[in-house]
Automatic annotation (TrEMBL):
Belongs to the RuvA family. The keyword Zinc does not apply. Homotetramer. Forms an RuvA(8)-RuvB(12)-Holliday junction (HJ) complex. HJ DNA is sandwiched between 2 RuvA tetramers; dsDNA enters through RuvA and exits via RuvB. An RuvB hexamer assembles on each DNA strand where it exits the tetramer. Each RuvB hexamer is contacted by two RuvA subunits (via domain III) on 2 adjacent RuvB subunits; this complex drives branch migration. In the full resolvosome a probable DNA-RuvA(4)-RuvB(12)-RuvC(2) complex forms which resolves the HJ. This is Holliday junction branch migration complex subunit RuvA.
Length: 196
């Protein structure tokens, strides 16, 4: 295996870079986030994975060795090849992916190209124990943790089902720090009882 390549970035392409090393110009496929961190003329060390197929060789690379570690775990899952794994890295950071796996969030993983519901569930099942010790990163924006929001919505629906107005239910739940529907409901009902 070619563990890493050090050299000058000769050319940037849409999905990778050409690195000059030892008189050769090697094409290395990089995820979009890493492509944005290098420019032509830069000296870089790229941690690589060499895919050998009947129709040729392909080099996939990362600027961070930990990203490559996760990439190797991903391609070890049935149905996830290097291109699909690169698609995951094109959509999420390694920290996001680890967070989704550690928290059983298959739905967010399906946002990556080539990842359907079954593949996302297989990733969770096969990698949950393997990513335990890896450091996750709480996603931001549209992929911020959803469980708490879902629990809040469920609790609000339950309160509205009991006859409380939407604004009353929202005010009663606001500030309660839990993603457990039962805990939210009990605390909100207690608040509403004190008001009434």
């Amino acid at each position: 295996m070619i563990d890493r390549i050090g050299g000058i970035i000769l050319e940037k392409k849409l999905d990778g870079v050409v690195v000059e090393t030892g008189g050769f110009g090697l094409l290395v496929y990089l995820p979009g986030s890493d492509l944005g961190r290098v420019d032509e003329g830069d000296r870089a060390t790229i941690y690589t994975y060499l895919q050998v197929k009947d129709d040729g060789f392909s080099l996939f690379g990362f600027l961070d060795e930990k990203d490559r570690e996760l990439f190797l775990l991903l391609i070890g899952v049935t149905g996830v090849g290097p291109k699909v794994a690169m698609g995951i890295f094109g959509r999420f950071s390694a920290g996001d992916v680890i967070y989704f796996i550690q928290n059983g969030d298959a739905k967010s993983l399906t946002e990556a190209p080539g990842i359907g519901k079954k593949t996302a569930e297989r990733l969770l099942l096969e990698l949950k124990d393997k990513v335990k010790g890896l450091s996750a990163q709480v996603p931001h924006g549209e992929f911020a943790p959803a469980p708490a929001q879902g629990a809040v919505q469920e609790a609000m629906d339950a309160l509205e089902g009991l006859g409380y107005a939407t604004n009353e239910a929202k005010a009663a739940i606001q500030g309660i720090d839990s993603d457990d529907v039962e805990v939210l409901l009990k605390a909100a009902l207690k608040r509403l009882a004190m008001k009434g």
